[in-house]
Amino acid sequence: MVSYSDIQGGWLGSGSQNIDADPLFVDPDSADFRLQAGSPCIDAGHNWLVSPDTADLDDDGDTTELTPLDLDGNPRFADDAATADTGCGVPAPVDMGAYEYQGDPAPVELVLGDLNGDAVVGINDLLILLSAWGLCSEDCCLADLNLDGNIGINDLLTLLAGWS
């Protein structure tokens, strides 16, 4: 499954929220695949598709947070106020691709299961998940932690595993 990606020529396979648009790379002929201002890939990814920081790239001792740095070592989650958020995530949706357009860095670390964006997986997140139980009826379904289109026991177990 391919989701929240910019794919030249489109994608006929399974997945959702894919686009077929010029990503506006800075200089692709010189292998500079960072995004320019106005790129449709800015704030258009899904936070739950970012892997956990198991290598502790930012040396903060937290390997449960989502990978906090992009390929350049810049903050992975930054909001560009000039770009409408078309992705899925709080407090800032990740950009599509390996590089994050550097707007305002997210004010908190992002953790899988933090549904309200307060950097803590706790009772409020549990209540959000339980209130959304069942099939996802919207494009951005944050409580669907395993991205299977259904909020159920596996999402609950993932949330509980990240409980702070």
Low-confidence stretches: none
Average pLDDT, rounded to a whole number, is 95
The major pleated sheet works out as:
2 strands, antiparallel
**Cα-atom radius of gyration:** 16 Å
The helix/strand order is EEEEHEEH
Task: Characterize the overall form.
Answer: globular
Helical fraction equals 10-25%
3D structure, described in words:
With 164 residues, this protein is low in regular secondary structure. It has helices spanning 123-131, 153-161, and strands at 25-27, 32-35, 78-79, 104-105, 134-135, 150-151. The strands form three sheets. The chain has a two-stranded antiparallel sheet. The protein is globular, with a radius of gyration of 16 Å. It starts with 24 loop residues before the first strand and ends with a helix. The relative contact order is 0.15. The mean pLDDT is 95.
Reconstruct the topology from this structure.
Layout: E1 25-27, E2 32-35, E3 78-79, E4 104-105, H1 123-131, E5 134-135, E6 150-151, H2 153-161
Antiparallel strand pairs: 1-2, 3-4, 5-6
Key words describing this protein structure:
2 helices, two-stranded antiparallel sheet, little secondary structure, two-stranded antiparallel ribbon, 164 residues, 9% strand, 6 strands
